[in-house]
Amino acid sequence: MQVNFPSEFLWGAAISSYQTEGGNSNTDWCLWEKEKKITLCDRASNHYKFFREDFKLAKELNLKSLRISLEWARIFPQKGEFSSEALKHYKESIVILNSLGIKPFVTLHHFTNPIWFSDLGGWTLSENIDYFLEYLKKVVNEFKSDVEYWLIINEPMVYLFNGYVSGIWPPGMQSVNIAKKVLDNLTNAYCQGYKEIKNIYKEAGLECNVSFAKHIRKFSPCPRLNFGQNYISASFRDKIFNIDLLDYLSGKSCLDFIAVNYYCKEYVKFNGIIGSECLHQNHKEHKNYLNWYIYPHGFYEFLKRFEKYKLPIFITENGTAERDDSLYEKYLLSHLKSVARAFSEGIDIKGYSWWSLIDNFEWDKGFGPRFGLIEIDYGNFKRKIKPFAHTYAKICRDNRVTI
Q1: How many whole angstroms from its chain centre is CA 265?
Q2: Are 146 and 104 in contact (CB under 8 A)?
Q3: Are residues 259 and 211 in contact, defined by beta-carbon separation less than 8 angstroms?
Q4: Buried (b) or exposed (e) across 63-101, using 16+ Cβ within 10 A?
């Protein structure tokens, strides 16, 4: 069965500034790498230099959208001081994308913070929200004529867990109570930012769409011992990680669309109500380079579940890192079948973006995982389109998926 998508469907890809640009030395992440003596991002994929080439390759792959992010620490390297050079660079990036017929989706916060902001207590203090809003208002006013879609925050629950519960990301805290404060502050920053963006566009007589990128994970109870207790923990994780924030913000009428980031399944075992990840060797699903369990049907399930919000859906990240290159195409096609199936059943899906356009720095995992449609040689920064990307390019051109 062929599922045909409308001509305005946005086939795309995604990147983030810190993971690709290189040279973002004013961020808390750069400081963290040096302090913890872990892999340095350094020049990353050198996208800050090669962005024009990368955008041309995106066009060659028939992409109609590209999700990018702005680096707050570049634009405001010091408190109250903005960089005209950084604004000029991002302005040029956005203008080029539009000239190529590639619609930019612009993310304002993709995990990284300026060092000065972190030194002031970062997201643990509500009074610091104003610093983020200052940055938001500056860039939205600068780029409002060229950007239709804004994502204020990327994956707040991932940021929250890794930075304030497990402590494997900066600022390296391990406190549920502090994590709750940070969630409140991120939520308030989002709601205030949403209103600011809408007001800026309204005053300019322009239209825009605003949301945040929500990481979704399929939580399944470990089918081994204590299935009933495991089910309780998996359901609890699903509620707090996947659903609660979407429910809250949709209730506040602060979402113009649902932005979905989906990758994998996680098995959960009971360890208190929140449970913990179960890494039993006998789970049947394929594990990718990062040992994530690949489960495309979960993607379909969430797209169907999100119909309740009665909002358009954009898939803003979906992808994998594999050891065997042949498995990229398998992942792509199996997950696009889930998208096509949900679309054919009336789910209002407006676009799909592969993570990522180019190979990049994968946070605490370094440069080992390769998610890109385009391979990066980190020795000389040469770009090379991967075989599975040609399959994706054909789908983008033909605008249809076989299920």
Answers
A1: 17
A2: yes
A3: yes
A4: bbbbbbbbbbbbbbbeeeebbeebbebbeebbebbeebe
- Give CA–CA dist 151/24, Å, rounded: 21
The C-alpha atoms of residue 283 and residue 138 are separated, in whole angstroms, by 49
Task: Please give the distance of CA 100 from its chain centroid, rounded to a whole number.
Answer: 23
Q: Which tokens is 383 given?
A: 């770009």
| CA distance readout (Å), 97 to 83, 106, 184 | 22, 11, 35
Place of tokens 């502090």: 178
Element (DSSP H or E) covering residue 388: helix 387-398
Across 119-151, b (16+ Cβ under 10 Å) vs e yields eeebbbeeebbebbeebbeebbebbbeebebbb
- Taking only the tens place, the pLDDT of each residue in 90-118 is 999 999 999 999 999 999 999 999 999 99
pLDDT for the residue 186: 98
Specify the pTM.
0.98
Q: Given the DSSP bridges, would you call strands 400-402 and 2-4 parallel, antiparallel or unpaired?
A: antiparallel
Q: What would the mean pLDDT of 215-228 be, rounded to a whole number?
A: 92
Can you read off the two tokens belonging to residue 82?
Answer: 């903005």
- Partnered with residue 384 across adjacent β-strands are 375
Cα–Cα distance, 319 to 359 (Å, whole number): 12
What's the pLDDT score for residue 283? Answer: 87
Residue with tokens 């069965």: 1
In one-letter notation, the amino acid at residue 395 is I
Token pair recorded at residue 104? 């930019």
Take residue 349 and report the two structure tokens written for it.
């899906």
From CA 250, how far away is CA 256, in angstroms rounded? 9
Q: 374-376 and 383-385: which strand pairing?
A: antiparallel
CA distance 161 to 305: 24
Q: Give the tokens for residue 118.
A: 């972190």
What's the CATH number of domain 2-398, 3.20.20.80, 3.40.630.30, 2.60.40.60, 3.30.540.10? 3.20.20.80
Show Cβ contacts of residue 85 under 8 Å, excluding neighbours closer than 6 positions: none
For the stretch 326-356, pLDDT in tens is: 999 999 999 999 999 999 999 999 999 999 9
Region of 34 please: left (phi>0), alpha (psi -120 to 50) or beta.
alpha
